[in-house]
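Q: Here's a chain of 421 amino acids. Please give me its 3D structure as tokens.
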Amino acid sequence: MKRQQVGIEALAIAVPRRYVDLAELARARGVDPAKYTSGLGAREMAVYDPGEDTVALAASAVSRLLRTHQVDASRIGMLVVGTETGVDHSKPVASHVQGLLKLPRTMRVYDTQHACYGGTAGLMAAAEWIASGAAAGRSAVVVCSDIARYGLNTAGEPTQGAGAVALLVSEQPDLLALDVGLNGSCSMDVYDFWRPLGRREAVVDGHYSIQCYLEALSGAYRGWRERALAHEVVRWGSTTPGEQLARILYHVPFCKMARKAHTQLRLCDLEDAPNAANTTAEAREELAKSSASYEAQVASSLSLNARVGNVYTASLYLALAGLLHAESGTLAGQRLGLLSYGSGCASEFFSGVVGAQAAQRMARTDVEAVMARRERVSVEEYERLMKLPGDGPEVLAPAPGEFRLAEIRDHKRHYVEGAAS
């Protein structure tokens, strides 16, 4: 297959200024800390305040992207924000970001919403816009920005989080050249997770949502595999098609979900393999649970997710940032698989090849510096912040180059930018 030179050129992340230690939260709730740290695979959870809304996080991520990678804003022709935490029923988050960063008026600007799939929908629209030639050499910025909120003393409390990942999509895919046209998709009309209008917290049918995730994964992965086999990107042989991907990244509502997802993907290959009739269903299920495969292909992508928590549509791309931060130098030229899932539901499996300049790009992104600036807060402070009204941000100065909601006046949202140091 002739690889399309379209993909992710650079990325940047933004996270709330505070976090809470999950072992400490578990003890405060009278729960064995291992239930959170081992059971969910999490260590820390981002704690947002009303000033760190979806717009502020998205604008901060884009600001960092443009600044650290010296992006010429006049060459951006599309700005898409994927989110399920919009701030208005009509005015998109993307419009706010465009205004705050004084981006060109000649851009196509909009939001995409489909639970945690929205960012991927934006990425595919941008990549296909560029691949089609309609972009005429221009780039796109796709931002995944979300806040996962379930409330104090709820079952979902330890799976909250917030953050944003901004992606520069172009014909110079230094980070990841996408295999345009190989994508597999699966969608169904289900009620596994939803947020009725006017609610800050979602309604979740947890066990059913996991079932929907795994079913959609199976359909999307098999669709990708069919196309990848036809183009000889992968093949049946001594290893399965999935095993021929250097790493596989998954949507991560909580880190242990990635293990369940990887087991399901392996089971798809083992059930469909040409020699499947020679093995029993029990043997295939046991082989699918291989810890060695999980450690080799998945575990290294979860470092940031374990420190930030659930970021809905940004979770897959936070995993990508974590993986490339840790391994971009050794993965150059190798193919990754990526699985996006959004409740309701839609799923897409796609792939891409890590660029030769990925390590240099990630060094400029400086993920560790962003994470190191956070402040650990007590459970008491976390609870105070969670009880603040969404329309009442505290008066705090944002860090240089970052944004913060200052007030809502006459139904208009007003933001401030941190002064340069």
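Q: Can you summarize the key feature?
A: Residues 7-417 form a domain with the Peroxisomal Thiolase; Chain A, domain 1 fold (CATH 3.40.47.10).
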